[in-house]
Every structure is written in structure tokens, then in C-alpha cells.
Design goal:
The complex is a heterodimer of chains A (415) and B (295).
Chain A: H1 3-22, E1 43-49, H2 57-76, E2 85-91, H3 96-109, E3 114-117, H4 121-134, E4 137-140, H5 146-150, E5 156-158, H6 163-176, E6 182-187, H7 190-205, E7 211-215, H8 223-232, E8 236-240, H9 244-255, E9 265-268, H10 277-282, E10 290-293, H11 305-316, H12 322-341, H13 346-355, E11 358-360, E12 363-365, E13 383-386, E14 398-401
Parallel strand pairs in A: 1-2, 1-3, 3-4, 4-5, 6-7, 6-8, 8-9, 9-10
Antiparallel strand pairs in A: 10-13, 11-12, 13-14
Helix pairs in contact in A: 2-12, 3-4, 6-7, 12-13
Chain B: H1 3-36, H2 43-60, H3 65-88, H4 99-122, E1 136-138, E2 143-145, H5 146-168, H6 170-180, H7 182-187, H8 192-218, H9 225-239, H10 244-264, H11 270-284
Antiparallel strand pairs in B: 1-2
The chains are: A alpha/beta (415), B mainly alpha (295).
């Protein structure tokens, strides 16, 4: 046998084996229940979210970590219904096609009793169809589209803000801060497109002139779009683009001299603003960026807020954003429903979820049953923060809105 | 200058800056296609590896942005040599019934492999390498990021160096001879099989250079090569398969077309305009703009 003939095969095999042996697994391994109740069959909870682009991997990872944290706490306390919990997490990449496949696997192969997660509306809108068809509960952790609520599926419950709620707040912030010419930039997803329409309507109601643009979130060069914004001469650039695009826009808008500048502020309405990657990738361009969140040391909603933040920070080496709080709250809600229902049967769990009043890290959560944008929607606090220093951590930001909670006025970069 | 002309020129300038970097990607792909007759489906992943190499050199090792770019070019050149020797030699061994299918499947598999293999190593988060310059450059009618301008100028320099190598050196003449007629080049005494790894190494190094130049601006993450590769492939078709002149002109054309499409048509379809023009060009001239001409 000539070695030359087999050389490519051997090299490939060696490479694959070397990498498999040498590296930590990329995907999340299921959280195995701890010790004692292991003899009993675990209650499987499905987790879903973006662990790879074009979704926001940082968001998916944070959700997964927060799920694990609460599930480990429950297991350490003896589990639920005398059984341990097991998390099976799947990557949706934030896309409908991968999300659908992941949901199918969780429900039909892993036989989970409920699914929690997702951070992209387009993906969740596809995933909720699978949940509805299979009659399995899906708790939305960070997808904001109104359609998720207005479809009125009994199996779907929402923990985060809805687009209507969020955009009404942005419009109020724009008006209260005295901006007159907002330029809105949104990604071409359900979150972005729906949000831009809602915000546009809210601004029109307030008599504010604006211009808007929908962009492909996978694009890397946003300059042609930003040139259009520059042509409008805005006094605030409102950016609702998730993932890598969120950072690229800030960087490119600054390079172009558009925003954040003395003449034009920049507001970004996505969870990505709370991650340390903001500074690593956008650098000093992110100074003076305004963003929204539900979390701030000066806003201690319940006695669960700070212990969760401390434990998360200690366990994972970085503080959580509001998405972490929402993910933790999702498990708290499911836990309470299982206890109340005394069962993992979907119908009984839905009945319980519609009745519960659960104390979470962001306040008391309950799920109204009146049809519309607030159907199965938990009440959500929103804060508008501003990075005033380069490399600032979210807890050091100033609250600039709402007026009753603000700790400082909006700052502008020097001319 | 009228405001509308100013706006038009600012879009053209942005298009040309991006076009130069597209050109660097497309040129590497063209070299590999011309010499080896392989369409490298993993080209985008060599772009991504270039970005990561620049990140490691400039940020982790603290060697600075220039060393980052040079490190990326050299590292990926050797990775390219290794990949060619390890995985692509069966393509021209004469043992395969359908060598083109082998090359297609192998480079496609390599693309998926490389994209996934960096996830456990670097994580899913995006990284930025050290920028060549901070701040913006005011070009009179438009302010452009300094990193982007320098990246564009370095791309022009690298393309000029490659053209010089191809036209003035014995190695370049040998590569061009193989691209024109592999058998005739072999008869003239050129060891065609020894030229393959060189062409593949240089081609992948060009992709790495583009990735390293753009890593501070467009960031690097596991899937960052996908869009760049799709642009390079489009330029390859637009300019004419295997034509160096076509790759450079096609790249500039695509950059400007995309930019102007946003200005005159709808911004929502930015990535569609270039492909629309490609379809039109192919309908009129199926070999692309400069297809069938000398390499």
C-alpha cells in the first residue's frame, strides 16, 4: 500500500480527531440533573436560542447560562414533583429554518415538556408554529414581535417587552429629550420591520417628522445606508439591528461623522449593547450611545434581582444583561406552573400559567388572557441608559429615561 | 459643487473603496481557478482565518496591526500550502474519474469544516483586530473611516504586487503559462504539479490579506467569510472566469453598482443589484466581461 494514496484521508482524520480531542465542545451539553433524584426520570425542559450567527451568540449563551443556573438551583433543592429537571438546549442561529428544525428535535426526539428561549422574532414566529402544532408550551425569553402575542396561541407566553410597548417608550424618550428629526434604521426581520412601523406611527402621533430605512442584517458595509441617513440631517439615529450589525453600525456611523456626535445622538434598541463585546468591537465609537435595558443597580425590582446578578457574575465571569434576567424568570414561571399544576401535562400547565403570579427578578409576572398585543404578556420595566465613558460597564451607566427614574441628563459628545 | 453631485460622488467613492477589497478576494480566487482549474468553495473561510490570524497577532500577542496583516498573510499561505498538499493532490493525480467533482466536494467540505472548527477555538463572539489607524479621513465630500481607506490602499498595493509577480518573475510567467495551457506548459519543462501548491498558497494568502485588512472594520467571526466569498464568486463570473483583469474591474464595478443601487433604487436590495447586473452581463456575454481573454 502506498502511503501517498491515503495521505489526504489520514491528514483529514488526524485533523478532525485532534480538534475533537483538543477542544471543548462548541454546543451546549444537556444539563444533567445532580445526584440524588437521578434514579427518577428527569423532566426535560427544552432551551432554544442563537448560539451562532446570523443570530446573536452572546444572547443565546446568556439565556442558556441563566436557564442552567435556575435549573441547577431547583435540582439542588430536590427537583420538581420529586423528579430532577434536565435542560436540553438547541441552537436556532436566530433563523426560522434552523429554529424550526431545533424545535422539531426538542419536541419529537427529546420529548421536552416545554421550551423556553429565543432571542429573534423571525425565528420564534416559526418555532411557535411547531409548538402550537405539537401542543407544547413555548415561553418567549427575548423575541419582541407583536405577532407572537396577537396570534393568540394558548401554548405561547411572553416574558420580554413587546414591540408595541418598546416603541411607544422610544417615541416617548425621543419627545421627552427634545429630538425633532429621528432617522430610524431597522433590520429586515419581524422585530425590525414591525418595530419601525410601530415607532413611525407613534412618532406621527406625537407630530415628529422622521425617515426610516430597513436594512439587511447580514450586510457588513452599512455606509451606503448611513449616507442616506446623513442626507436627512437627523438629530438622533435610532438603530434596531441585532447581532454583528449592531456593532458595525455604531462603528461606521462614527467613522462617517454621523453619530453619536454633538449634532446627532445614537440610540440602539437591542440586547447586544449590554455585552462587553461592544467595547472590543465598536471601541470608542460606542461612547455616548443610548440603549435600553431592564436592569440597573439603582433599579432593584425584587429581592431576587441582585442575588441572581451576583450568582450569574460569579458563575460565568461576566454580569448578565436583562436577557439573563428574563431567561431566569422564564424558568421561575415554568417552575411555579409545574408546582401549581402538580403535573407536566400541557393543558394543566397552561391553566396554571394563566393563573400564576410569580415573583421574578424584574417584578411580579402574570399572563393576561385578553386577546391582543398583551395576550400572555408579562409586565416589563424598561430603562434608557447612556454610556458616558469608554469601556463603561452597564451598571455604571446613567439612567436618562424615564424621567421619574433618571439619574442624569443626556450627554452629547463635544463638538 | 451641487449637493446632488456631491452625494453621487460620495457613493461612488464608498463603492470604489469596497470594490478594491472585493478585488483582493476575487484575485486570489481567480489565481486558483486559473492555475488549478478549481473553484475554491472554502475561499471565504481563508478570509475568515486571515481575520483571526490578524486578531491573534495584533491583539493577543500585541504585535500591532501591521504585524497582524503580515502574520495573517504568511500563516494562511502556509495553511493553503498544507491544504493543497494534504487534500487536493488527488485532483490532478489522474486516479479520479471525475476530478472536478472531487475538488468541488473537497473545498465545500473544507469550508464547512473550517467554519465549525473555529467555534470551539475562538468562541461564537465577534472579534476585531487592531486597526491600522483611528478616526476618519475627510475626502472633501465624504468622511470615510481611516482604517477603511488604508485597507483599500493596501489592497491596491497587494494587487499591484501580485500583478508584478505574474508579469515580471519566472514564477509568475510559469503560473500564467499553466493557466493558458497546462499540457503545453508541461511540455516546455514547467513542473505543473509543483506550481499548484504555490498558486493555492498565494490565492489563499490574498483572501487572508482581505480578511486581515477588514477585521478591524467588518469584524471577524466564524461565518464572516460567507458574504465575502459570495461577492468574490460573483466577481469571478462577472469579470470572466479566470481573468485577472476581469477580477479587478469586476470588483470595482460590483462595489460601485451596489453603492449606487442604494442611492438610486431601494436600499433594501443592496446585495441584489450586483447579482442583477451579473445576470444581464451573462445574458449578453456568457463568458463574463473579460472571459476567454488571456489570464
Amino acid at each position: 500500500m502506498k502511503i501517498g494514496r491515503w495521505f489526504p484521508v489520514l491528514v483529514t482524520l488526524a485533523l478532525v480527531l485532534g480538534i475533537v480531542a483538543g477542544c471543548a465542545p462548541a454546543g451546549p451539553a444537556p444539563t444533567k440533573p445532580a445526584e440524588a433524584p437521578a434514579a427518577k426520570e428527569p423532566i426535560k425542559i427544552g432551551g432554544i436560542g442563537p448560539l451562532s450567527p446570523p443570530g446573536t451568540p452572546a444572547l443565546g449563551t446568556e439565556m442558556m447560562n441563566a436557564f442552567k443556573l435556575r435549573i441547577d438551583e431547583i435540582n439542588a433543592a430536590g427537583g420538581l414533583l420529586g423528579r430532577p429537571l434536565e435542560l436540553v438546549f438547541e441552537d436556532s442561529a436566530g433563523t426560522p429554518e434552523k429554529g424550526t428544525a431545533a424545535m422539531e428535535k426538542l419536541i419529537n426526539k427529546d420529548k421536552v415538556i416545554a421550551v423556553v428561549g429565543e432571542g429573534h422574532s423571525s425565528a420564534l414566529l416559526a418555532e411557535m408554529e411547531v409548538a402550537h402544532r405539537n401542543h407544547v408550551i413555548l415561553i418567549d425569553v427575548e423575541a419582541w414581535s407583536d405577532k407572537i402575542r396577537t396570534r393568540g396561541y394558548r401554548e405561547v407566553f411572553a416574558i420580554p417587552a413587546s414591540n408595541t410597548l418598546f416603541n411607544a417608550k422610544i417615541a416617548e424618550f425621543i419627545q421627552a429629550s427634545g429630538f425633532k428629526r429621528p432617522f430610524l434604521l431597522a433590520e429586515d426581520t419581524d422585530f425590525g420591520v414591525e418595530g419601525i412601523q410601530l415607532l413611525g406611527k407613534a412618532l406621527e402621533n406625537l407630530g415628529i417628522t422622521y425617515k426610516s430605512l430597513v436594512v439587511d442584517r447580514t450586510t457588513k458595509d452599512f455606509v451606503p445606508f448611513l449616507l442616506q441617513a446623513q442626507e436627512f440631517n437627523p438629530d438622533i439615529l435610532v438603530v434596531n439591528v441585532t447581532g454583528v450589525g449592531a456593532y458595525l453600525i455604531i462603528k461606521q456611523a462614527k467613522e462617517l461623522g454621523l453619530a453619536p456626535t454633538a449634532n446627532c445622538a445614537l440610540f440602539s434598541g437591542v440586547a447586544d449593547m449590554g455585552y462587553p463585546e461592544l467595547w472590543e468591537t465598536a471601541g470608542s465609537a460606542a461612547q455616548y450611545v443610548v440603549w435600553e435595558t431592564a436592569i440597573h443597580p439603582k433599579a432593584q425590582y425584587t429581592d431576587l434581582t441582585q442575588p441572581f446578578i451576583d450568582k450569574y457574575t460569579k458563575t460565568y465571569g461576566r454580569p448578565p444583561t436583562y436577557s439573563g434576567l428574563q431567561a431566569y424568570d422564564a424558568i421561575l414561571v415554568l417552575e411555579e406552573a409545574i408546582k401549581l399544576a402538580g403535573s407536566t401535562d400541557t393543558d394543566k400547565l397552561i391553566e396554571a400559567l394563566e393563573k400564576v403570579k410569580v415573583k421574578g427578578t424584574r417584578g411580579i409576572m402574570s399572563f393576561p388572557t385578553e386577546p391582543g398585543v398583551y395576550y400572555h404578556q408579562a409586565d416589563v420595566p424598561l430603562l434608557f441608559l447612556q454610556y458616558t465613558e469608554v469601556g463603561q460597564t452597564p451598571d455604571k451607566c446613567e439612567i436618562v429615561f424615564p424621567v421619574n427614574l433618571k439619574t442624569a441628563d443626556l450627554k452629547k459628545p463635544p463638538k | 459643487m451641487p449637493k446632488s453631485l456631491e452625494l453621487f460622488l460620495s457613493y461612488v467613492i464608498n463603492g470604489l473603496i469596497i470594490g478594491n477589497i472585493y478585488g483582493l478576494m476575487a484575485l486570489g480566487l481567480t489565481l486558483i481557478l486559473g492555475v488549478m482549474k478549481i473553484v475554491n468553495f472554502a475561499h471565504g473561510e481563508f478570509y475568515m482565518l486571515g481575520g483571526y490570524a490578524a486578531y491573534i497577532c495584533s491583539m493577543k500577542l500585541g504585535l500591532g496591526p501591521v504585524a497582524g496583516i503580515l502574520g495573517a498573510i504568511v500563516t494562511v499561505f502556509f495553511i493553503g500550502l498544507f491544504v493543497e498538499r494534504a487534500l487536493l493532490t488527488p485532483f490532478y493525480s489522474g486516479r479520479l474519474e471525475r476530478p472536478s467533482d472531487y475538488a468541488l466536494l473537497m473545498t465545500f467540505s473544507l469550508s464547512v469544516f473550517l467554519m465549525n472548527v473555529v467555534i470551539p477555538i475562538f468562541g461564537p463572539y465577534q472579534k476585531a483586530s487592531a486597526p491600522l489607524a483611528e478616526g476618519s479621513v475627510n475626502l472633501g465630500i465624504v468622511s470615510v473611516g481611516a482604517t477603511r481607506v488604508i485597507a483599500s490602499l493596501v489592497a491596491i498595493l497587494l494587487m499591484a504586487l501580485l500583478l508584478l509577480l505574474l508579469s515580471k518573475t519566472r514564477l509568475g510567467i510559469a503560473l500564467r503559462a499553466i493557466a493558458q495551457d497546462r499540457d503545453a506548459a508541461a511540455i516546455c519543462g514547467i513542473d505543473v504539479n509543483r506550481m499548484n501548491p504555490v498558486a493555492f498558497g498565494i490565492g489563499t494568502a490574498m483572501a487572508a490579506a482581505a480578511g486581515a485588512l477588514l477585521a478591524p472594520t467588518f469584524l471577524v467571526y466564524p461565518a464572516s467569510g460567507s458574504l465575502a466569498a459570495s461577492k468574490a464568486n460573483a466577481i469571478l463570473v462577472l469579470g470572466g472566469m479566470g481573468s485577472i483583469k476581469g477580477a479587478i474591474i469586476g470588483a470595482l464595478l460590483l462595489g460601485v453598482l451596489e453603492s449606487l443601487g442604494v442611492l438610486f433604487l431601494s436600499p433594501g436590495y443592496r446585495d441584489v443589484y450586483g447579482f442583477l447586473v451579473i445576470v444581464l452581463v451573462l445574458l449578453i456575454k456568457p463568458t463574463g466581461l473579460f472571459g476567454g481573454q488571456e489570464f
